[in-house]
Amino acid sequence: MKLLSFAVPCYNSAAYMENCVRSLLPGGEDVEILIINDGSTDETAAIADRLAAEYPTIVRAIHKQNGGHGSAVNAGIAHATGYYFKVVDSDDWVKEEAYLEVLKTLKELTGGEQVLDMLISNFVYEKEGVSRKKVMKYKHILPVGELFTWKDIHHFYKGHYMLMHSVIFRTKLLRECGLQLPEHTFYVDNLYVYEPLMYVKNMYYLDVNFYRYYIGREDQSVNETVMIGRIDQQLKVNKLMIDFMVEHKKEILSDRKLSQYMLSYLDIITTVSSILLIKSGTEENLKKKKELWSYIKKKDWVLYKKLRYGLLGQCMNLPGKGGRKISVEGYKICRHFFQFN
Q1: Backbone dihedral angles phi then psi of residue 205, each to the nearest 5 degrees
Q2: Which label site among 40, 94, 192, 246 has the fewest CB atoms less than 10 Å from its CB?
């Protein structure tokens, strides 16, 4: 059994995927690298096959029909043989020194009396044209260098949250919790770092800058214009998160720190959905914003009250055209203050 499985979802990634895969190779025989070719039409499949032939004991090429990022992650979980599992997007990469520290830590924690469910590390925003790189750290929130549970964490501020880039899950936990990301849908990484949390008991934070998150391509899914064009997919993910929170309300509320974190993360995602709908400026999208908040209200009045009358919820729901302008400016201030992505 391998120590760590990497899933590298690839769709027409020929221009940059090899850089990603090669950054993972220093893990040697401790790791497997699953290149998930999600129905690409460029040279992605050929590159995946070449790398698999070049490193047959480390790299595996998995070819499938196009199903989107979530479908590729699902395939990675299904094929993984590693004790732990991590997703690395094909335009991102990892830093070798931190990578080796991650592997060393995982080895030390495997097979002990307490089972590690999730390892957290830092990630760096590799934003095109920006010389000073923003690092997402957690050292003032999470205990450093020791196993801990939800009760041991400090308060997560609005600008701090765990993205897919931050986490390594125990593979069996992902399977046992029944995680199944929707196909042909962007922004499912929010579900990936949300739904399993209820099942996570033991965590470990390693304060190293491991993952490098590239931001700069015009067609990238996190580009604001692209997100507005795909707003229905953002809303789909947002509603699935709401559904999960409501359906598992009893279990989540039984752990105060867990419920605080999950509520805060849902607050951020709902704010992002709302501000994109406002900024688009169309009547259709303003109706979708109203419908989103009505959806929350119908699902769970208490959840609605917490989201609607919190700082961000109030900022997103100011009345009239003037109110919407204030909402946009208020969001900019909040984003600057809380350092949103």
Answers
A1: -110, 125
A2: 246
Alpha helices in 58-208 (DSSP H): 69-79, 96-109, 171-176, 189-192
Q: Is the dihedral of CA 113, 197, 77, 121 positive or negative?
A: negative
Q: 26-35, 38-47, 145-154, 278-287: which range is least confident on average?
A: 278-287
Q: What is the mean pLDDT of residues 31-35?
A: 98
Beta-sheet strands, E only, within the chain = 4-10, 31-38, 59-64, 84-87, 93-94, 118-127, 134-136, 147-148, 167-170, 203-215
Phi first, then psi: what are they for 222, rounded to 5°?
Answer: -90, 0
Instruction: Identify which of 143, 125, 194 has the alpha carbon closest to the alpha carbon of residue 164.
Output: 194
Burial of 298 (0-12, 13-18, 19+ CB in 10 A): exposed
Mean pLDDT of the chain: 92
Residues 199, 171 contacting (CB under 8 angstroms): no
Percent helix, strand, coil in the chain, to 5, is: 50, 20, 30
pLDDT at 137 (0 to 100): 93
**142-186 residue pLDDT tens:** 999 999 999 999 988 876 889 999 999 999 999 999 999 999 999
